[in-house]
Amino acid sequence: MSTSIAIVGAGRIGTALGRLLRERGYEVAGVVCRTTERAEAAVRFIGGGRPSTDPAEGAKGAKVVFVTVPDRALAEVAARIGARRRLRRGEFLVHTSGAHPAQVLRAPGTERAHLLALHPLQTIADPSEAGRLVGAVWGMEGDEEALPLGMELVRALEGTPLPIPPGAKPLYHAAATVASNYAIALAGVALRLFKSAGLPQAEALRAVAALMEGAAGNLRRLGVHWALTGPIERGDAATVRAHLEAIAGGGGRSGEGEEERLRVEGIYRVLGLETLRIVAERDGGLSLPHQGIKELLEGVS
Q1: Interatomic CA distance for residues 209 and 215, integer angstroms
Q2: Residue 259, pLDDT above cutoff 50
Q3: DSSP character string of the chain
Q4: What's this model's pTM, rounded to 2 decimal places?
């Protein structure tokens, strides 16, 4: 008999997980959304399950209950499930939050259940992108009894488990935020600079996306130290100086004010210094040209 699962909070991640796990032989019991219409749509996409708007009702008949609601609602929804369905030993509550430990699901009625946090290090903008979860890295943390289930689920999704030490969830999630959300913020900075140079937005966006995809490919193949390219990596102080001078005079063309210009310049300087730190780690120190770039970025010369 296949393992039965429920999806409580069938949004992007919950619906995508439900579909992928059903395709891999898991039986889908309840599928819960705020409205019946959305629950029925999620059931159609998943290909199975019983639509519901009630978390406790949707969790009935499931050995593994995924609580894939927004972070702020995790504790409340777990309490609603526990109040009406007393979970037993051998049953599991699982959430996919990167920020919260599995214990956020502990509530009256869930004392005997095993708790698991299983967080995909992958972005899903829409359930139709479910395939992006296949082969992903999954941050995993929770009760000792729940970790084998985590391994099983990750294997089913052809992924790589990343066990998170106790108490390390905030730092883990900060790292994930820098890698994902801040990459988009950096794309925004690059687009501002292209705009300041007078280049059209649509073409600039394609260029930024291609550059970031290329950098991600280099990172995957070569690692941080050898994926670096560009003027700072090669010690080209003249080009870095030209960048700083252009940024300093770039606000006029783009129509942006001094405050915005200073923010972009500050980002360029801070990330340039971080690039030099990586170069120094790789090379065992900074060469004279790299030291000159450091002084430029620090405003010394």
Answers
A1: 10
A2: yes
A3: -PPEEEEES-SHHHHHHHHHHHHTTPEEEEEE-SSHHHHHHHHHHHT--EEES-HHHHHTT-SEEEE-S-GGGHHHHHHHHHHHS---TT-EEEE--SSS-GGGG--TT-TTSEEEEEEESS--SSGGGGGGGTT-EEEEEE-GGGHHHHHHHHHHTT-EEEE--TT-HHHHHHHHHHHHHHHHHHHHHHHHHHHHTT--HHHHHHHHHHHHHHHHHHHHHH-HHHH--STTTTT-HHHHHHHHHHHHT-HHHHT--HHHHHHHHHHHHHHHHHHHHHHHHHHTS--HHHHHHHHHHHT--
A4: 0.85
pLDDT digits (tens, 9 = 90+) for 174-195: 999 999 999 999 999 999 999 9
Strand order in the sheet with 27-32: 50-52, 27-32, 4-8, 64-67, 92-95, 114-120, 137-142, 160-163
pLDDT at site 29: 96
As given in the structure block, the two tokens for residue 207 are 């260029």
Opening angle at CA 174, ends 171 and 177, nearest 5: 155
How do residues 95-144 score in pLDDT, each as one tens digit? 999 999 999 999 999 999 999 999 999 988 899 999 999 999 999 999 99
